[in-house]
Amino acid sequence: MCGENGGKWKKYLPLATLADRISTKRTTGFSPFELQFGQLPVLPIDIETKTFLAVALHKISTTEELLEARAKMFERKEEMRRKAAEKLKRSREELMKYWDRRMGHQLRSPLNPGDMVLV
Question: Which Gene3D superfamilies does UniProt cross-reference here (predicted)?
């Protein structure tokens, strides 16, 4: 895909980063785009096929409606971030339990908060 010597990577980098930024992450349940902007990304396909994302944009006709939509977006963004933080905390706790079950027996003594470790 990036050529024999990897010389074409610059061509695909913007698409690869876009794909990563709009993909939902298992640990948070949201995409980085959603957490940053408080809404799903509107892609060209959404506009072309007139999905629910594009239709909502065309309904706004006044400054008041735009401000109201933006305020709702900020409210949703804060709620998304709160939910993402809770899900991330649960994911980390599950990972800790998994690691303790699978690898905890290999420790000579248990680790405590504040212990020095080699990374």
Answer: Ribonuclease H-like superfamily/Ribonuclease H (3.30.420.10)
24 and 31 in contact (C-beta within 8 Å)?
A: yes
Residue 52, domain extent: 9-103
Say if 55 falls within a structural domain.
yes
Task: Report the distance separating Cα 54 and Cα 45, nearest Å.
Answer: 9
What DSSP character marks residue 26? Answer: T
C-alpha to C-alpha distance for 79 and 56, rounded to whole angstroms: 20
1 part of a folded domain:
no
Cα distance between residue 65 and residue 59, in whole Å? 9
**Could you state, in chain order, the average pLDDT of each consecutive group of 10 residues for the chain (119 residues)?**
73 92 93 90 80 67 85 86 94 90 76 87
Give pTM, 2 decimals.
0.61
